[in-house]
Fold these 4 entries.
Entry 1:
Amino acid sequence: MAPTKNKLPKSGMKSEESIFTLEYLKKFVYDPHRLGPTCVLLFLFEIILNIFIIERVNYTEIDWRAYMQEVEGFLNGTWDYKELKGDTGPLVYPAGFVYIYSLFYYVTTRGSNIYLAQYIFLILYLTQIALTYRIYLHTAKIPPYALILTTLTSYRIHSIFVLRLFNDPIAVLLFYASLNLLISNRWLLGSFFFSLAVSVKMNILLYAPCLLIAYITNLTLGETFLNLFICGLVQLILGAPFLYTNPYSYIKGSFDLGRIFEHQWTVNYRFLPREIFESRSLHFSLLTLHILLLLLFAPTLKRYLSSYAKLRVVTEQVKNQMKSERRRRQELRKKEDEKLSRKEKAFLESFEKQFKSDKAKVETVDDVFEDNAKLADKMSKVTQLFVLPFFVTNLIGIVFARSLHYQFYSWYFHSLLYLVFCTGFRRPVIFLLLGVVEYCWNVYPSTEISSGLLHLCHFVLLYGVYRTMKM
């Protein structure tokens, strides 16, 4: 994996003179290790921006009314999935969706208070970006200026959340909660949230191959089975009423792999004639290519996740040793300070000031043990080994998706910035890719050119990431 090109920030407090130099301030624009302040400012900006969107931009009805009709049937006692329908057709999402939107149904007065629903989705959006920022901070891969640019140009994703109220963002939000838990080494809870995400919409299963490899490489056989058991148990518990009533209609309705999408809504296959788009041969070909590409990436994914498993153990041991050593040194210094007279302390302080003023390049033992920034840098590189396999596995699924609708942009929007910075491409190419992808998702209705460009960007992105991962 290509290491980050940004230099590691030096530990310790800066003098007042150095804090306000141009070079130091530039770090808050270009250095991924200085992303924190940018995240805080952007989070506050997102609150204001989304409130402005809700208050000034008209809400557009697409699926919300249909969602309410579908869960209303459930709340009225209909547990046979084939009987749950709305204006847009039958219910095609798993049980988690039903429970979440049933809660929305009650809170928003049977779905009539759309204004309140928009503010609920504002909270969901803010939670999503907070979880995304946490991953960015842990991996130290994204420079602050890049995050600013993508935030300012992300029109479509704001629309999907607060102007459309789709269920896709909820599923993605639960997955990002799962991913955050996994990088914090909380596997059981991470598996629980992953299964919750799948229960809202089945597109989260695109991550499943990577999750399985992560289990195998990071956990024992028993722990792997336990986590898989939790994933399955959550599905059984949530789907229990529907499985008891009519298991076939529930499984077919909520996990229908043979579902045919409408050509008028496709973003990625507008250039195909309708008869080819709806043909089974195209669907089978895409599924075959999806599986083949996963097999191509599988050894690399395994290598990344295996390396993560080994290095995580080492870094945790080093981290614990450093804490113990720091605590021991603090206690020794405290005892030594108690023995020193005032004159001796004054002499020692003046000597330390003189030593700090010398621009010596040699590191002392204290530098090694007290340089938290160095440890943070190592930890960020280790976390990159875990995050990238998940994002690229999802990208493979999107590249060979049978159809992408406008709300599906939320499936990978929050990982796009990370992925382009893992390609090794130059900055102009990186931002060109991001700009063209955003353009393609904002062309309505899609055109042959926009759908073709989207495929081109996807393949270029996939090639760049694969090339970097093979290094």
Note: Residues 1-5, 9-17, 354-370 have pLDDT under 50 and may be disordered.
Entry 2:
Amino acid sequence: MAQFLKWISLKQPEKERILGLETQAEYRQRWISIRVLYFTGYLMFLAFGIVATGIWPYLKSLEPSVSKVFLAYVFAVPPLGQLIFSPFIGWWTNKLSSIRVPILLLSTIFTIGNVLYAVLGEFEDHREYILLLSRALVGVGTSAVTICRAYISAATRVSERTKTISYMALAQSLGLMVGPIFQSAFAELGENGFSFLGWFQVNMYTVAGWICAILGLINMVLLMPSIFVDSPIAVKEAMKSQGAATAKETWKSVQLQYFSITTMVVAFSLLMFAYVGYQTLLSPVALDQFGWTNEESLFYLGILMTAGALISCVLFLLLDPLCKRFGETNVLVYGAMFALFLSQLLMIPVGTQTISESVDSVNGTIGCPVSQEWCQSIPPVSIAQFTVSYTLLCVSFSIGTTLSQAVFSKLLGPRPQGTWMALLTCAGSAARIVGPASVTVYVILGTYWTFGASAVLSGLIFLWMWVYRNSLSPTQPAPVEAAEELKVLNV
């Protein structure tokens, strides 16, 4: 309780004050601004979590003839928007003294995309393509994640970095957790729902767009100058510890470790690839393998995703002490990459009874469709396998994405990180574009190939990182505390 009160009080600790890097007022403003970006991160992931289980039945209700392959396009469009716009956003952020203008612009685009998602039923034709457009706009808006990562790297001291990134990841995970809760809670509205003031239809699908749009407007208010103020303390810390006269001197003194940087990018990309691919497959696998209806799928998957997000939240809170006890690299390699390998391995089906024999099809609408011929020869994935595998995936994703970002940021040092963080975002976006293609592999070849190939890939990356784990620790200049102690000794 005392730790929580300390967290919300924003009172500058005495050990922070004596460093002389900022006043109490500056310290308080810095952490208010960081927490505004926590809300931004929460919102960007809420927009994904709130539609993850509903977007497929929503699409089917709008266009009954649409195929599962098109679902892969729907999930791939948002990261494509990120991939295209993040480099420009990162470059632009480096050129500005404040991140306010680009992040406000992206929040506006994000809000428009969600409104469009909510009013799809008002269009007469080509609804599936308008859905693609709405998700593309949301994807462009979520390029704000690049700005958030770069800002946290600039607005935190090295000793604060891992914990702050963990809290950002916690905020994002809360978005994933609350999203399915909203989707499940509003499932009672049904597909008919109600008409809002006679203008728009609000049902269990469109409510997701309206919630995100309203929160997008709140996010823009929080970014106003009276609330959000840029605080580049990382450069101040580096300048003081090195006795440098300019910011450029500090970051030029830190040599880039390209091998380690590349490893972090690969790890981050693989985690995104596996997680988004799995999320894309959640509904199709549940409907095919377990014979659930759309309503059952929406309800049970919402519970599963919420439980996974709760586990992630606990991990984020424990991550800083775990890293201090075992080291960031060890927690990343074993807690993230090995857990990812196990999660994919567990989804390989076992048994002799085929899916078609174990799941009854009712008029061809429930269970594995006859067009997927592999259902006649491959055993089903059990609910236990599915649950344990998804839990391990959540553990892996939570630990891995947080620590890969933290280590990546520390490897870069105090240099401007907008463009570099755009590189990390682009790598993750590219992986998220390819990830939904697992639906195509699943539809054509089945679960053996889908999860077998993913298990092999994640296993190889785990071995790579295990072999080179000692080279992944960032080399940092002496921290300010050490410099202050030396100054005292010399007096």
Note: The first strand starts at residue 194 and ends at 196.
Entry 3:
Amino acid sequence: MQNGEETVAATETVKPEEVTKQSYRVKVWRHLENNGLAMFPRPVYNRIPNFKGAQEAAVKLAELEVFKNANTVKVNPDKPQEPVRVLCLEQQKNLYVPVPRLQNGFMNRLVLPEGETGPAAIKKAVSRNGMETYGKPLSIEESVSLDLVVMGSVAVSKEGYRIGKGRGYGDLEFGLIMHMKAIKPNTLVVTTVHDCQVFDTLPQELFGPHDVPIDIIVTPTQVIETQRLSQRPVGILWHLLSNRRIQQMPVLAQLREIEMLAGRDCTLKEVDTDIEDRGGSRARRQRRRTRSHKSQSEGEGNTTEGEEKPKNRRTPRRRNSQRSAKENKENKDGDDVKEKPRRPRRPRPVIDFSVKISNISPSTRVRDLKQALIERGVKPQMMTWKGFRGFCYLHFYKTPQKGEGDNIQPPNMESIINALSQMCVAGTGDETSEKPRLLSVEPAPPRNIIRPVTPAVEQPPLEVH
């Protein structure tokens, strides 16, 4: 969906009055999910979607002069931009990451502990918990100068228009750093997305003065310099915010107080039109808990009938125990007792084919290879790991596992080998890990697995021996 035309043709026609930012979001989210392009966390709905090829897009961004020359970079905290954060720390750039939802602050500078600069430490630092642990809070009154801003997106156009996930956090973060004068005229705004998230055009009427335009779009296959038809926001547009939004984000309340003391107009909008989907779900869960608590209170407040209600819940258990005791007694007395028929054992899954992967580095761990397989959409049901000897086997069953859709075509050896061609995996066992190795993939002869494989049907898709 390079320009969105393919997806539009595959779905129902959208009436002009129904063309909204949300309609484009749903279009992209659905395309990613239905075409196997979505990555953890899933589903990607209501998120900045993590996509297959995020690592490749980050590497392509790192090849640009604007990234090489940047000393101070601000990157959003979402999962698809995690490889960009890794590259920033690996190249010892000053990395700033906004606080998620701006609820407990504004922005943190990620600082690795002294002496911990290896791949494992960096990978931990860029995770959600790591950004909180290693983040040094930045105040809106501090001075900082950003050379590059990297944002996540749901949809973008070659004209520079950007659509986020709909909560407005990215635009608010940009408005705050504009207030801090951290954005210079030559500071570029970049986004990393999948090719299917790029449209040739997006309706201009959907965008306002608060929307942040994009200068460069980086995908796993290309770099696009946009036309950037709109201007950047000059700061926080208070008339677009409600009082509730200010209360949810203390940093906005702090900035508004500073602006009002300076004599600037900070009038908020009177009608709260902000949509918070999470609020409704929390309210529904609270009502369920209230009803449960109420029924329990009524039972405790009554005398005889109320006290008997909890006992009725345990009655079937006592009846079962009494029935078992009676049956055991009859069995001892010599009476015939009908035995329940045993369930037939499930047939053991039969391995359809196996693939051998060679040239594995001794420092490579199972999780490194698992991640590489996930990124290429390969999901074996079982793995025989011999990484310390430089190889492993991937086994694929003849029948799909429980929970898989009926429309999913079973993999074949040719498709698996094609998917794993030119795959490179680097070991992350220590700080002196060698460069990624090009792995060798070839068909493997049928193998007799000594261990029973029946439990694999009930367990997660990948079992390692």
Note: The CA atoms of residues 76 and 83 lie 11 Å apart.
Entry 4:
Amino acid sequence: MGFTTVVIALFIYIIWDVNYFIRCVFTLGIAQFFQRKRKISEMTTIYGLCTTQDVDIFIRHMNNARYVRELDFARFHYYGLCGIYQTIKSMGGGAVQGASSVRYRRTIPIFSFYKITTELIWWDEKAIYLQQKFITFDGFVRAIAISKQNITKVNVMELMKKFEGGQKRPEQPEELRIWLEALEVSSKKLRKAD
């Protein structure tokens, strides 16, 4: 391998988050080839370890931004296991993060193992809503997140009918209702400012 090749590889590694893409492929590959498929109503779980790449400036616990990144992997895993993303794509649509809220309860110390659970908690015409939890092996929920996944070019009510358990929408959780009201207040302010 020549010097130029090494420089180009290093440059690509620096400007693109290569680890992110490798982890995406690995997470989706595990889901696709080694795990049983899940219903949309079933919870999925991935596991992680807080390493030196995940910690804050004091090198003691996971950086707040890393939580959001880890949620991506757990969400992709959920999508892969229940087949929802493939169905959205087959209907000519896509999925994009619309909003998220993370409540940090207690830090995840460096070199601690944890798991992230993901479950679908509600949906409306335009989005699905996921609840995700970071849980350490002592059983403590270290952080909890709710995310709004906007589904583009597809009516979500019709989409959900394609899945077992998707014919009847669950009751909207109170914390989700309040959060959505807060998002609407924020949206109204932004619309006035435009």
Note: The two ends are 54 Å apart (CA to CA).
